[in-house]
Write a structure and sequence with these properties.
- By secondary structure, the protein is of the alpha+beta class.
- The chain has one domain.
- About 30% of the residues lie in helices and about 25% in strands.
- The protein is built from six helices and four strands, in the order αββααβααβα.
- Strands 2-1-3-4 form a four-stranded mixed beta sheet.
- β1 and β2 form a beta hairpin.
- About 10% of the residues are buried.
Length: about 150
């Protein structure tokens, strides 16, 4: 974000911190995992956060139906990456120290010029891990995309 864009952040928006999470998953083709998460503990989201899910009775009916129907087919999908695609209704902002970034990233994105007081400000427009509203927004986004047109 440029200095002018930083000045335009609504005063009531909290700028939270970003955290770099590093993990090693040896069962993956590329086992090295790096991601940035948002400090959700500082975010006060003004809307509902809970998502409705199926209760135990609904799950039992589904499984009984699949198991008791001859030649039935069943499919289950992991939509974890879909979770990271949901657009935010209200943009969030994180601040990260310039020293947290590797030199090649700083050069590639010209972050030195964009930094203010040694920090880079990042506008979040889509769900990322750590935001309290990510689950709800992903659920709404999925429902909208699965709805018949």
């Amino acid at each position: 974000m440029t200095h002018e864009q930083i000045k335009q952040i609504p005063r009531d928006r909290i700028i939270t911190y970003g955290r770099i999470v590093v993990d090693y998953r040896n069962q993956k083709v590329d086992p090295n995992r790096v991601r940035i998460t948002a400090g959700g503990n500082l975010i006060d989201y003004p809307r509902e956060l809970t998502t409705r899910s199926a209760d135990l009775t609904t799950s039992k009916i589904l499984w009984n139906s699949v198991l008791s129907t001859e030649r039935a087919w069943y499919m289950c999908l992991d939509i974890k990456n879909f979770y990271l695609c949901a657009p935010l209704e209200i943009y969030e902002y994180i601040r990260m120290k310039l020293t947290d970034f590797p030199d090649h990233i700083i050069q590639q994105y010209d972050l030195t010029r964009k930094a203010k007081n040694g920090s880079v400000y990042i506008e979040i427009r889509r769900s990322i891990r750590g935001l309290p509203q990510s689950g709800r927004l992903a659920n709404d986004f999925l429902s909208e995309n699965l709805r018949p047109k």
